[in-house]
Design goal:
2 domains; 6 strands; elongated; alpha/beta; about 150 residues; 3-stranded mixed β-sheet; 2 helices
């Protein structure tokens, strides 16, 4: 079902604490709900729950396939660098401490600017996965999701 329709239906039955997230783990915002479809929800359909329960809908863009299960964005655990390969640049940046200096470069020779970070996937990273961050700067190379890392 479309995200906007799902939200409307949920409100019709009394759910008002509605949130949504990117089921592909790319940390994209669902700014135009009509362009997204629902893949998952945290409250089972038909479950009798109080409508003050928060309802979270996992969604992807209409042209995308729903993943078998929601992909979780990476997280920096214990101050160590996560493996960001294939992750959106936006999700990678969000996983790091806000004070971390992050440089993002085009992995292809075009030297393009990475403006919409949720549309770019990480190809390589410095420091390597597992290395202690300790305030180190981070460098990521990336390409658009439909491109191959070279």
């Amino acid at each position: 079902m479309g995200l906007q329709s799902a939200q409307d239906r949920a409100q019709d039955v009394g759910f008002h604490g509605l949130t949504s997230h990117d089921s592909l783990g790319r940390d994209r915002m669902q700014a135009f709900d009509r362009n997204w479809k629902v893949c998952s929800q945290n409250v089972r359909a038909g479950a009798s729950r109080a409508t003050d329960t928060g309802l979270d809908l996992g969604a992807v863009k209409w042209e995308e396939n729903c993943p078998a299960k929601d992909e979780k964005p990476p997280a920096a655990a214990g101050g160590r660098m996560p493996d960001f390969a294939g992750t959106s640049v936006k999700a990678a940046r969000a996983a790091l401490d806000p004070g971390t200096s992050v440089t993002v470069e085009d992995a292809l020779p075009e030297d393009r600017w990475v403006l919409m970070e949720s549309n770019w996937k990480v190809c390589s990273q410095k420091p390597a996965a597992g290395v202690s961050l300790n305030g180190r700067p981070v460098t990521l190379t990336a390409v658009k999701f439909e491109e191959n890392c070279s």
